[in-house]
Design a protein that fits this description.
45% helix, alpha/beta, binds 5'-O-[(R)-(carboxyoxy)(hydroxy)phosphoryl]adenosine, binds zinc ion, single chain
Amino acid sequence: MKILAIETSCDETACAVVEDGRRVLCSAIFSQIPDHRLYGGVVPEIASRAHCEQIVAVTSSALEEAGITLPELDAVAVTYAPGLVGALLVGVSFAKGLCITLNKPLIPVHHIRGHIAACYLAHPALKPPFLCLVVSGGHSHILEVRNYTDFKVVGKTRDDAAGEAFDKAARVLGLPYPGGVEMDKLAATSATGKYRLPNPKVEGHPFDLSFSGLKTAVVNLAHNAEQKGEELDKAALAADFSERVADMLSSRLFVAAAQLGYKTVACAGGVSANSQLRDRLERDAAAAGLSLYLPPLHLCVDNAAMIGAQAFYEYRAGNVADYSLNAVASLGIDGVE
Ligand code: KG4
Ligand code: ZN
């Protein structure tokens, strides 16, 4: 089954064709980063307008890359939640138009389910059940992937998402948008251990996370250095910050795996591209004797191939939308708003 997938939930306009949930026939991404860098973050209206301008060209180039014509497709999938509503609506409306023209089913895909499915594309052996850490710009969850379309959140952040924490810390350090990847690069240039950062825990909830104290610590260090006229060692702070985030995320994941009896764990979402996090997860998995699955770097950040992968399993489970499908800004992975 060949599914054309559309992803426009944030600042990437993406289109891919995926066969049977596991084989990527083509994947095209137009990144809007230069448009938003000027403002230090994603500007929703600029994102929607850029999707509107690019969606046809991105889709055409994906199809051209694979040598596939529209009538050869079996279905069209689209990210409908969560994300920026104006941005999502471009993809949803475009997907509906294609479905009407081609008379093919429309498959709605939850963005975070898509991030998890990125792991299926890279790892043919990976099948549910497994425990997954999902860390993106808007989400930090530990969840049980009980089946391809059945999820249970067992841990979550009480405040910022991990990606948000990286982006905010990066901003304090004066790094350009997108901050997470810049923090990663800067951290790689320094040793760790110079700055002592807090390790916030959520009392009574061993799988939950909290990043606001860590973010405040970075803000305070920057202010204190400024007031005293001292030079902040930005690379060392980036390294210690990244190490602390990796420690928080990985330790929670493996405590959850041990308590819930999972032998297979995975990590997905934009922050799963972080080099310190990947190293730490690999080390902890080896120490615990668990199998760890990570997406390759190009599938960590937003793309449409992951949406096409998840769409196959949604379709198999009977999740097909009618033409009243709407975009939803905020929606849990289990479909609860
Ligand atoms: O999954 P994603 O592309 O978009 C959302 O669904 O939110 O994740 C984007 C987030 C941003 O906060 C970005 O700064 C972060 O992932 N990110 C990273 C890295 N690459 C992307 N954070 C830390 N290290 C990275 N290498
Ligand atoms: Zn994402």
